[in-house]
AAA-ATPase-like domain-containing protein (Turicimonas muris), 395 residues
Amino acid sequence: MKTNLMKRLPLGTSSFAKLRGVGQIYVDKTDKVYDLASQVGNFFLARPRRFGKSLLISTFESLFKYGLRDFEGLKISKLWKDEKKYQVVRLDFSEIKNFSSIQKFNAELDSLLIGNFSSVGFSYTESKTILCSTQISTWLKTLPSCSLVLLIDEYDAPLSACLDEPKLFEKVRQKLSEFYSVIKANDAAFRFLFITGLTTFNKMTVFSDLNNLSDISLSPVFGSLLGYTHEEVQDYFSEYLSCASKKLGIEKEKLFKELTEHYDGFCFEETAKQKVFAPWSLLHFFFAPERGLKDYWLEGLGKPTVIVKFLNSHALRRAEDYDGGKSIALSTLSEPSDIENLSDVELLTQTGYLTLKRIQGTTVYVGYPNLEVRAAVAQLYQEQTLKEKLVDGTR
C-alpha cells in the first residue's frame, strides 16, 4: 500500500463522498465494510464519540446508493459485485435532543421520520387517529423485498438527553420501541439495517421486538473497524509523523511511542487483544504538532450527555482510584445493568473512559486506555467536586 504524501487530514469530515471528493486521507476499512454490507442482515455497533461512527454510516450510504462510485482504488472495489442501487434512509437521532416532554419528543421524532422517509417515496397524511409509525408500516408493506437500506446513527441520543428524568426516559424508550417494532414487522422490505450508538444501556429493551439484530460491538472481527491501528498510523500518516518529529525535534520512533501513550490503547473486542488510536485526538495532533501532545478528548467536544446526566445523581471516584484497573462481568458489556443500577465503572467503560485490558473467564479487567483519557477523568472528578462544594455552600 502506498503512503499518502501529505494528503489532507479528514478533520471533522463525516461525509464519505466529501472525504473522497476533496482528496482527504481515508484509512481503508472497506474490506470490513464489505464483510457487513455483503450480508442481508441487521447490525448494531457501539463505540465512543468521535471514533468515526457517522463516517461509517456515510460509507454504507454511498455504497448502497451509488455502488462503487466513491470507492475507486479501495479494497472493496475488487470485492463488491452487487450492481443494484438501493433506496437509503438515514436517520440521525442526535438531532432529537432538545425536548422537555413526551409530546415534544413525539413531534421531533415524527418530523425526523417523515422528512427522511419522504425522500424515498413515503407520503405522510396529517391525521389525529393514524400514527406516523403506522403509516410508515403500511407504506413499507408495499415495497419490493430487500429494496430499502436503513441506517440509524446515535440511536441512544434521545435516551441520554432524558437520562435524569426516569418517567420521561421510560416514555421515550417505549416510543422508540414502537418504531423498532415497525421495522421488525416489515423486515422483508430491508436489504440492510445498521444502527450505531455510544452505549448499549437498555439496548435490548429498546430493541426488544427487533430480536434479529446482530450486535458486533464486541466482535474480534470488527475490533479495528473504527479507530486506527499502529500499522495504519505508520502507513497512512507516515509523512505527518515525519513532519511532526522534525517540528518537535524528536526521533520518529520516540514520537510514535509518546503518541501511543497519549492517544492509543482503546480496545473494544472480547479477546482484549486489538488496540486502536482515537482518530479525533491523533488527527488534531497531526494538524498542529507544534502544540505538543495536548489533551483533545474533551476539547471541542465537552462531556457526553450520558456522563453529564449520570453525574447528576451518581458519584465519580478520583482518577487515581481507577489506576489499578477495575473488574466487571463480561456480560455487562453486551447486557449492561438498567441505567438506574449502572455503576461508574460500567458507564466509563461504555463511554470509552475505561477500556478492556484483559479477559479472565467471565471477568473483564478494565483501565484507562491512555494518558489523555486519564486526564479527562481527573477533570470530570474535579468539576464534580467543585459542584458539590458550591451546592454545600448554598445550604
Observations:
- The chain has three domains: 28-222, 230-291, 305-393.
